[in-house]
Amino acid sequence: MVHALPLGRARDVLHGLPLGHPLHPVLVQVPIGAWLSSAVLDAVPGTRRSARLLIGVGVMAAAPAALAGWVDWAEQHEDQRRTGLVHAVSTAVAVGLYAQSWVQRGRGRTVLGKALGMAGLCAVGVGGMLGGHLAFRQAAGPNKAEPVPHLLDDTWYPVGSVQDFPVGAAVRRQLGEVPVLVVRQAGGDIHALADRCSHLSGPLSDGTIAEGCVQCPWHGSVFRLADGANIRGPATAPQPSFQVRVDEGGTVHVRLPGAG
Q1: CA 190 to CA 184: how far, in whole Å?
Q2: Is 63:14 a contact under the CB 8 Å cutoff?
Q3: What is the mean pLDDT of residues 141-168?
Q4: Where are the alpha helices (DSSP H) in the chain?
């Protein structure tokens, strides 16, 4: 159902591709901040209207945050999706409680409204804890290619002769712990990228090569071969891109600037 939403290029925006990291954690700051501030105002005399306003802001702001979260959730693996569902249920409960709090406060039932708000804060706290578990324990969202520069030295590595790389074919080479995708294009240019997708470590060497790009076989992220730039999500971080040179004997060497 999430994949079927007619989002077009907005899907990449919701993933956070223009930011270079997921958008969902940024958006959730608005409702959580508004609701936490409303709880503080509930303890301050004469701030009933301000507290209710903040609750309304939080309920409205929860919608785009939830949409971004669902778009990310649809591209995660099974264990992450399972945790994500419980996270979403907890957050939905919080939104429902805060919506009722807003209604009851408008009817003059301030004590009931405050109680519902406190219950909503507890529910969103549980959701936030699960979101933290999802992000930091289950690694949903971090750039999976970030360790690559720390696993290599800033030096030239031989990966084979030019003849070992058929034109337009994805060839995988191993540099210590780092798998590398090497592609020779029709014009003779040779490009090399870290092979594991920055989204969820999908093997780019099993992906599709077309129009100067490689598409991850797992979730469809597209990276430009020339520089590793991510053209389409769900990946939000680019792929480490290697410099390539060919020596007089026809041996291809690759180097990752800044490695080590």
Answers
A1: 4
A2: no
A3: 95
A4: 10-15, 24-27, 29-42, 48-73, 78-106, 110-132
Task: For residue 22, give both structure tokens.
Answer: 């997921």
Average pLDDT, integer, range 126-138: 96
Cβ atoms of residues 183 and 224 within 8 Å:
no
CATH superfamily of 148-255: Rieske [2Fe-2S] iron-sulphur domain (2.102.10.10)
C-alpha 223: how far from chain center = 15
Write the pLDDT tens digit of every residue in 74-115.
Answer: 999 999 999 999 999 999 999 999 999 999 999 999 999 999
Residue with the two structure tokens 């590398």: 180
Whether residue 260 is predicted with pLDDT greater than 90 in this model: the reply is: no
Tell me the two tokens of residue 100: 């009722």
Token digits for 55? 């609750």
Q: Are 61 and 30 in contact (CB under 8 A)?
A: yes
